Amino acid sequence: MGIPTRGGARKGRGPAFDVRRTAFGFALIAVLICGVGLMVRTALESAGRHPVVAGAAVAGLVAGIVALLRVRRGRRAAGRAAEAVVETAYDVVDAALEELPASEAVAVPEPLPPVDYAAMDPYDFEEAVAGLCRRDGCADAEVVGGAGDLGADVVATTPDGRRLVVQCKRYTCGNKVGSQDLQRFGGTCYAVHDAEAAVIVSTGDFTEPALEYAAQCGIVCVGPEELEAWSEGATPPPWYAGAPVETVEG
Known about the structure:
The protein has 250 residues and is of the alpha/beta class. The chain has two domains: 19-99; 117-240, Trna Endonuclease, Chain: A, domain 1 (3-Layer(aba) Sandwich).
């Protein structure tokens, strides 16, 4: 008599346990969890600086979870889970935005009415330049010009902590600041006055050799047009135009 054989699997019974497929599923979940963590971290770090990047990270997070849920539980469950994830993600980003420090306001200098600096006497011109320095954040700006000033008419401390030394030249339009004037100022502003920002302000123009020497020494030249723009608040203060020069001993 023949030995009866077991028939096929019963109807309705799921597929047999597959170790390889199960291991692959756990690995996929682990990779997805790591990706979710990275996306959330990126969203939190970028929310304040780059909202678009944060939004892209959230969108990627939602897409990954939706894709997994479609495979595991079907479209309906994926839709419900996606909505919950979107709400949670936006709540997290909003909370991060609330905790970010407020940006510091940048002080914009108030423009002065048109001033005829060339009509001033030398002392009034120095006082006017010191006033511009104080307006733009150099609270301790003072006039020190006079006999034996060795080229320093105004000294101050810039808002970023540098020692500012300014020489004022109240010249007529036809009288230009020459290279010898720059050489005298360049020989004292750093070695004698310890300048970290050196500026020469003139109501007259500068000669080309003077401008070349100033560029070599890191001295900022402010002529009539630059002075007018500075006074009207159209340009940054001149001490931001040049980098401080480091003197080398020996």
